[in-house]
Hints:
The structure is a single chain. The protein is α+β, with helices and mostly antiparallel strands and 547 residues long. 32% of the residues lie in helices and 21% in strands. The chain folds into three domains: 7-244 and 357-409, FAD/NAD(P)-binding domain (3-Layer(bba) Sandwich), CATH 3.50.50; 252-351, Succinate dehydrogenase/fumarate reductase flavoprotein, catalytic domain (Flavocytochrome C3, Chain A, domain 1), CATH 3.90.700.10; 432-527, Fumarate reductase/succinate dehydrogenase flavoprotein-like, C-terminal domain (Methane Monooxygenase Hydroxylase, Chain G, domain 1), CATH 1.20.58. Strands 2, 3, 9, 10, 11, 12 and 19 form a seven-stranded mixed β-sheet that branches. Strands 20-18-13-23-24 form a five-stranded mixed β-sheet, with helices on one face. The longest helix is centred in the first third of the chain and has 21 residues, at 95-115.
Amino acid sequence: MYKNPALNHKKSNFAVYNRKMHHYDYIIVGSGLAGLYSSHIAARYGKVALITKSGIRESNSYFAQGGIAAVTDEEDATEFHFEDTVVAGRGLSDHDAVNILVREGPERIKELIDEGMEFDMKDGELALGLEGGHHKRRILHAGGDVTGRRITDFMIKKVSRNCNIEIFENLAAIEILTDNGTCIGIRTWDLIKESQRVFTGRFTIFATGGASAIYSNTTNPSTSIGDGVALAYRAGCMLADMEFIQFHPTAIHTEIEKSYLISEAVRGEGAHLINLKGERFMPNLHEGAELAPRDVVARSIYKQIQVQEEPYVYLSLKHVDPEKLKTRFPNIFAKCASLGIDMTDKIPVAPAAHYMVGGVKTDLYGRSTIKNLFVCGELASTGVMGANRLASNSLLECLVFGHRAVERSREELAEDIKIFNKEIFKEEFHIDHTRQEEFSRLSRSIAEILTKHAGIVRNEKLLMEGLIKLELERIVYVRENSEIFDLVGENLIIVAELIIKSALTRRESRGGHYREDYPNESEKYIQHIIQQRGEEISSLPVNNRDL
């Protein structure tokens, strides 16, 4: 759970001017791979402020185990990667976006390697892994099961040594600043000094990550609570497909650990899923068995758990070479050992909220519906993922669309913004330390609501009950009135409502969204569910790039 106390906004009629103000060419928010890589590219063209609300290494990218998917082998082809991505997306992937991903991805990988990034090698060639949904070995790894850490550390070194980039840690974005429909920067809150700092710039790139940490069981760091989603929604951005939360099928489940990810690559190397009776159940459910798309595997595990006493199944590795496991997955092997689990035998696992498939709707260059505001990484809905993210496409998406966003910005007509208007400081905020326990209770409550009412299996009754509970939380906790407004608490509720309302609208089952009252796919819903502040929920056809 996110541990910071409530951030309150006191609506005031007077201005406070003694706040810090900064001006850059590019303001980039988020220190995952999308933010780091965008900063690296943007620094070629101007001064960059890289802002993160915690430490620079606290991100989903940093903890990513699986790898990065790209065509680098002669026996593979971009057409195959395209097909695997579209199949996993269950009819909701925008083909132009997927084509861009698979065709530009290898070029981005080559550039990284040329700059010094080292991926795992075997016999002088890139060592390529296989994961669920892929029909060719195309997953690049670094350090075995610590690819995210290696690639983000590599980019952190790049941005840290670049004199055009200034890094700001422990600054939480609390408002996207706009003027006549154009983004002019962001307002932040200094979590250490407890004061506001304003950043203005010609271009702003939001890469704040996803929202899966607002669920009870999650693989995400506690900071991934959807801040960027709520702020973009408040600013008027168009959001798409918020109903699609991908649950990773295999997170360790013990009394002391319920969220540590067991990479899909472990199943790619031959691990089997077995129930408490020792029976392997996936081969009878899908032709891909353990390497079926993630939504299929997660739902299959969920159903096994419903008919047994314990809330987990096992990932069996008895038949896999022990030395291969130690070499290929050193980090996972060590984690299991620290928990008293013998990875060479079996690991207790259960699904956990892992990835926000939907997000802020963008065009093929990462542009949002607000001029000069670009969005990339997990926060963005580029059209690539569709209804279900294909394993290891996410890191590649960060590179491809982060690069496209920066390069496109060079073609935009953006005057250098010089703001001396004191009106920008009218908003007054403060941290209310007395409400820490109350905020923690709200976080737990929302996590329980989402897990129960908008989890792996959904229905209309559960979703409606969830909405009612969220509204009660707003009344009890947020205390929205003329005097005080709790920003962080309200943001949590906004994100949860966006997920549930979108799930209610999609009356079918597709990809990461499963409705037991509408268990089949429907052609009627081959469309993106759209939400925008002040507008009724609507839809856009797949492959329609109009924003």
